[in-house]
Amino acid sequence: MKRGWHALAWLLVVLLTACSSGGIPRRVSEPAASVQQLTVEADGRWSIELRLQNYSSIPMRFDSVSFEFKLGDEAAGTLAAQPALTIGPESADVVTVAFDPSANARLLLAGRLADGRGVGYRFEGTINAAPADRGKARDYKVKRDSQLSPVPGLPGVLR
């Protein structure tokens, strides 16, 4: 009987040690961003749905983004927003940013849409983010090259 109690006590110690080992490790990884959708509004401005990706194992607070945005070879301007958005671990969310593009970028996109063709985009800049529970925000450098294609049946919309 005494031997049974010792085994039970030993098992309890092992279980308590396993439970207090810290759980899931806190890993903060560089975030990413991409254009999920670009819509040309009636007034010529663009509405850009910017997808923010949190690759960290903990929730992150996204305070601001600022990117130099190019469409094809044309500088379109600075894409900036202050989403003040918390994104869960290894998840993503979308923020909509009103954007007033340069005249040359506007013309380029109008021509591509008229021809039914897509266009490449590039942005380079920073995402300012921090762990949601604590921690000082820092700037993460971000660079993205990708393509947008017209959406059939939705005039002025590219994904």
Entry summary:
This protein is of the alpha+beta class and 159 residues long. The protein contains 2 helices and 9 strands; from the N terminus they run αββββββαβββ. Strands 3, 4, 5, 7 and 8 form a 5-stranded antiparallel β-sheet that branches. Strands 6-2-1-9 form a 4-stranded antiparallel β-sheet, with no helix packed on it.
What is the average of the pLDDT values? 91
Q: What is the tally of beta strands?
A: 9
Helix- and strand-based class? alpha+beta
**CATH fold field value:** Immunoglobulin-like
Shape: elongated
Q: How many helical stretches? A: 2
Domain count, please report it. Answer: 1
CATH-level-2 architecture = Sandwich
* Cα Rg: 23 Å
Provide the β-strand percentage band: over 45%
Query: Secondary-structure element order, as H and E?
Result: HEEEEEEHEEE
Q: Report how far apart the termini are.
A: 71 Å
* Largest sheet descriptor: 5 strands, antiparallel
Query: Spans with pLDDT under 50 lasting ≥5 residues?
Result: none
Helix content: 10-25%
